[in-house]
Amino acid sequence: MRLHLDYNIPVKNVLSLVIAIPVFLFFFDSLGYFFQYEIAKKLRVLFDITLEANIPTWYSSFIALLTGFAALLIVEHYYAGGNKFKITSWLLIALFFIYMSIDDTSQFHERVATVWAASANTADKASLSSTLVNSFESYYWQLLFLPLFGSLGLLMLYIIKTEFNNRLARILFIAGLGCFVFAVILDYIDGVDSYYEAIIASTGVKLVFLEHFSRAVEEMTEMIGLGFIFTSMLLHIDSLKN
């Protein structure tokens, strides 16, 4: 079975959508936060970008799945030519974004990391995993998953450098990876109390406000990054057809 896709959608329309939708979701989240007494609680939860099982989560999962399918179309193109390295590389990328789609709705990496950390804390205190868990300040999933995600990110950078002929596609892909890096930095800060304490001491903002909007910006940035990468893949698919 071979995948095939014909489309004629102007890239500026796709790009506008993948930027506008996360910003729109962030706006409605902010509206619900500031006017939470006037808006029904259940309706606010529906647009809370920092929570799961709502509209922002659905969109994030959907755009990640689309990105994975776009990567599979690139796999199909190289499969016809028999290039094993490119097939394997793009298949890994496709699986990663499909995994992201599943993770958005299941919180897979958080749950696995929590179990791993709990296991490490009950194990030999001199073990490597126990030492890492007890010395790490932020969320444990970063210890467990970031080495793998970072390696895949380096593979993506190599691929776009060697394969992407479209300049805009390269810029968008790099911008998308940059959004992920920024989101991870925000997530790391969110897990370290001393950062928030310093900001609160210097600005006087409330902790609940700081936590919410830091997480909201993180989620919006990740959604925009996914949109950038999806758009860049569409451009690359278009260049492969020519």
Short summary of the structure?
It contains ten helices and no strands.
Layout: helices, strands, pairs:
Elements lengths: L10 H24 L6 H7 L7 H27 L2 H23 L1 H15 L5 H8 L5 H23 L3 H24 L2 H11 L3 H35 L1
3D architecture notes:
This protein has 242 residues and is mostly helical. It has one domain (11-106, 137-241). Helix content is 81%, strand content 0%. The mean pLDDT is 87.
List keywords for this structure.
mainly alpha, single chain, 242 residues, globular
Instruction: Count up the helices.
Output: 10
As a percent range, the share of strand residues is under 5%
* Poorly predicted regions: none
Taking Cα atoms only, what radius of gyration do you get, to the nearest Å?
20 Å
How far the N terminus sits from the C terminus, by CA atoms, comes to 23 Å
Roughly how much helix do the residues carry, as a percent range? over 70%
Structural domain count: 1
Helix/sheet category: mainly alpha
Gross morphology is: globular
Question: What's the story with the biggest beta sheet?
Answer: none
Number of strands: 0
